[in-house]
Amino acid sequence: MDALLEAALRLATPLLFAALGELLVERSGVVNIGIEGLMLTGAFAAFAVAVTTASPGLGVAAGVSASVALGMVFAWFVVLRSADQIVVGTAVNLLALGATGLALRSLFPGGIPAAPVVGPLEIPGLASLPVVGTALFGATPFVPTSLAATLCVALFLARTRAGLRWRAVGEVARAADAEGVRVAAVRIGAIAVGAAFAGIAGAMLPLAQSNTFSEGMTAGRGFIALAIVIFGRWNAIGCAAAALFFGATTALQFRLQARGLAVPYPLALALPYVLTLAVLAIATGRARAPRDLGRPYRREAH
Amino acid sequence: MLVRAALLVALGCFVAALPGCGGETTQQTETFRVALLTPGSISDGGWNQAAYDGLERVERELGARVSHVETKSPAQFEEEFRSYARDGFDLVFGHGFEYQEAAARVAPSYPETVFVTTSGNTVLPNLAPMVFELEQATYLCGWLAAKLSSSGRLGAIGGVDLPSIRSTFVAFRAGAEAARPGVSVREVFLGRFDDVPAAREAATALLDEGADFLIHQVNDAGRGVFQAVQERAAKGSRVYAFGTNRNQNDMAPDVVLASAVLDVPSAFVEVARRVESGSFRAEPIRLGMGEGIVSFVLNAGLSGGIEAPVLQELAALAAKIRSGELQVPRGNF
Predict the structure, then answer these.
(1) How far is CA A139 from CA A21, A187, A208, in A?
(2) Is the pLDDT of residue B93 over 80?
(3) How far is A214 from chain B (nearest CA, A)?
(4) Of A106, A214, A261, A271, which to mutate for an interface test with B (greatest number of B Cβ within 10 Å)?
(5) pLDDT band for position A1 (cuts 50, 70, 90)
(6) Residue B187 with chain A: CB contacts under 8 Å
(7) Is some CB atom of chain B closer than 8 A to the CB atom of A9?
(8) Phi-psi map region of B282: left, alpha, beta (phi>0 left; psi -120 to 50 alpha)
(9) Residue B245 CA to chain centroid, in angstroms?
(10) pLDDT tier, A301 (very low <50, low <70, confident <90, very high otherwise)
(11) Bridge partners, B188 (sequence order)
(12) Structurally, how many domains does chain A consist of?
């Protein structure tokens, strides 16, 4: 049971970081489906720098920087040039997949080395708490940080003036503009913060979830994060619940297979998706996307 | 007007009659051209990289002109086969069981090109699979694992449940059963080959279930399996893993006990030689321990801990497989 909880949190953490980032972007009215590409870029940069400098900390910083840099390219197109967000997001994904693969082959032609990893926290005292002790405090710092980040994002959006402006830009950009909120600045800022979160999510794949990089190693986690934002009803706590649920069912399906249950493995692999859909169908309540989500804002347009 | 048309026609006939302009005459002097389709990245340190190494050796040793493409989806298989055949390539490798249907659809239209799939069973006059008997080595992995396991539980982690992958697990299980009847072998599949963190979780789940020897068939993601085993070993458990396809003993020298090694590059050179010299025959090309293409390589740093009688028995078993006296069970495909 402890092992299952630990696995669930481990599997949920990159999804949660990526989903929180996407949540912030979407609440400002922008859909960034390039989050998978940002994660992959972050993962590669983190891996390459960690290997070269032998410092996982510098690796994480590099992952965040690379993801933000690519995020700014996205921002230039969708905010300043009012380009279609889906098209630019798709381009980001394709670019990241190709570029990281090429860079991997040219930087490490003789084989892929092992990266120095971010070790577990092992906070004495806290790690020995019953049930959640090892799962939370015996894990890598990413795990508790993701939960703290959830609270920060929730408080920021719901309780701060900046959060209110941020949401106003996502709901009715024109009205926010009329109130003196700089729509483009907020959206660019949101994309930068979102990309930083995606960079953390990416960096932890080679530096905490494994000790290596492989091409396409994000394996669709960015797209799952997009879904988690919807399942989480555009709300940070909801995102955390959805990510944890998805992580738990994924951990569970590996354990069902390992237990030798006579279930065809594709069914086991589908379990997290099926259960998440089922929960979404059963759970009632209001789920509404930010009104101006996906709409480029042009000041002069009427 | 009419005169001009007649002149054009005459000119056309003249050009067509020029030596060297018809296709046939230059065919003889063209260099041997070999292409490779891989289902994944050639930097995976496993299945795909080995094929690319093979292609490079074909280029070096046979002086062939080579080309490679990584296919992203099954829809692309047929398209790429066709485009290489149309370009006049002499030999096109499809590196995996999954390529045979596409190759069978394309091969009849291009009789001048030989198509070889890595594993498979589809044979046409210009299409044959090369069948690696990696099962011979995974059988030995299973045998050794069952001999040394203290829990009597073994684990196998697979990427996608392809028949060729399933087959190596069938042999692993058979080897384990031969050493220790009633041994348990659990399998976990990931549904993909590139998800290292997922491989690590799958391996951790198997270790949590008490498995103490793990084999994998997940290419890139194999490092995740080794990492999970290393972590468990660091906590004081006696757990080991086996490498597959390439010699992976040095990827985690403290826990990889042995590797089931496939010398794919040599196999590619061998097949390319046969095609170039015209000795290609429309039948499966079987390559195993007897041919020196497959081998079972113990990690010298760990094999010292294995008792001498077990090692002797292992060597005798390997000799029997090499000579053909022992036929290793394999998946039916």
Answers:
(1) 22, 34, 9
(2) yes
(3) 6
(4) A214
(5) low
(6) 257, 265
(7) no
(8) beta
(9) 7
(10) low
(11) B157
(12) 1
Would you say B224 and B165 are in contact if contact means Cβ atoms under 8 Å apart? no
Name the residue among A142, A185, A188, A166 with its Cα closest to residue A42.
Answer: A142
Query: Structure pTM?
Result: 0.83
Query: Position of tokens 């195993």?
Result: B288
CA distance A254 to B311: 34
Q: Is residue A289 part of a domain?
A: no
Domain extent at residue A235: 2-119+135-282
Q: What is the mean pLDDT of chain A?
A: 91
Question: Is A299 within the bounds of a domain?
Answer: no
A214 touches chain B (CB under 8 A): yes
Identity of the amino acid at B323: S
- Label residues B135-159 b or e (16+ Cβ within 10 Å = b): bbbbbbbbbbbbbbbeeebbbbbbb
DSSP class of residue B108? Answer: G
Q: Specify the CATH number for the domain of residue A201.
A: 1.10.3470
Residues of B in contact with A212 (CB under 8 A): 196, 223-224, 227
Query: Which residues in chain B are closer than 8 Å to A251, comparing Cβ atoms?
Result: 201, 205
Lookup: tokens for B129: 């699979």
Residues whose CB falls within 8 Å of the CB of residue A75, separated by 6 or more in sequence, listed in order: A187, A188, A191, A192
* A269 with B189: Cβ contact below 8 A: yes
Sign for the CA dihedral angle at B256, B257, B260, B266 comes to positive
What confidence tier does B20 reach under pLDDT thresholds 50, 70, 90? very low
Closest CB from B197, B206, B221 relative to A258: B206
Whether B228 and B203 have beta carbons less than 8 Å apart is answered as yes
**Residue A152 included in any domain:** yes
CB A67 within 8 A of CB A93: no
Does A108 lie at the interface with B, CB-CB under 8 angstroms?
yes
Note whether B208 contacts A212, CB cutoff 8 Å: no
Q: Minimal CA–CA distance to B117: which of B77, B152, B83, B144?
A: B77
Query: In order of start, what are the domains of chain B with their CATH numbers?
Result: 27-132+265-287 (3.40.50.2300), 134-262+299-323 (3.40.50.2300)
Q: Give the Å distances, CA to CA, from B224 to A214, B193, B231, B255, B279.
A: 11, 11, 11, 13, 42
> From CA A215, how far away is CA B39, in angstroms rounded?
13
Calpha distance A256→A271 (Å, rounded): 10
CA B157 to chain A, closest CA, distance in angstroms equals 9
Q: What does chain B come to in residues?
A: 333
pLDDT tens string A30-56: 999 999 999 999 999 999 999 999 999
Residue A302, domain member (yes or no): no
